[in-house]
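Task: sequence design from structure.
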């Protein structure tokens, strides 16, 4: 590689908008952990998500759950008779399993 190639400006480089959108979801603090918990535990009530993501405040967790719902990653299920509410991954959310598995593999390799 010559010196000109190494120092070329990245002016012509642009990220794929879909890639940016994906990382805006997965890169937001707590989202990965919320998704991981739902992948491993299945449908959960709010209190159970709180137990599994204990360092996230209730306010932030509510905010993240709403955002993930708007993004089509999770579904908020309300049961009329009991008033019970729980959260589950949608098909779109379930398809993140391979992504999360790859993150685990990378972490296992590079972090002691």
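Answer:
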């Amino acid at each position: 590689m010559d010196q000109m190639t190494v120092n070329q400006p990245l002016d012509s480089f642009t990220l794929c908008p879909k890639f940016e959108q994906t990382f805006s979801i997965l890169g937001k603090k707590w989202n990965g952990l919320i998704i991981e918990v739902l992948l491993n535990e299945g449908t959960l009530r709010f209190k159970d998500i709180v137990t599994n993501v204990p360092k996230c405040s209730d306010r932030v967790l509510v905010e993240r759950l709403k955002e993930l719902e708007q993004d089509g990653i999770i579904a908020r299920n309300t049961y009329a008779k009991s008033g019970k509410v729980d959260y589950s991954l949608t098909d779109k959310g379930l398809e993140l399993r391979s992504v999360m598995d790859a993150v685990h593999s990378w972490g296992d390799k590079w972090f002691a």
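Residues 68 and 98 are 18 Å apart (CA to CA).
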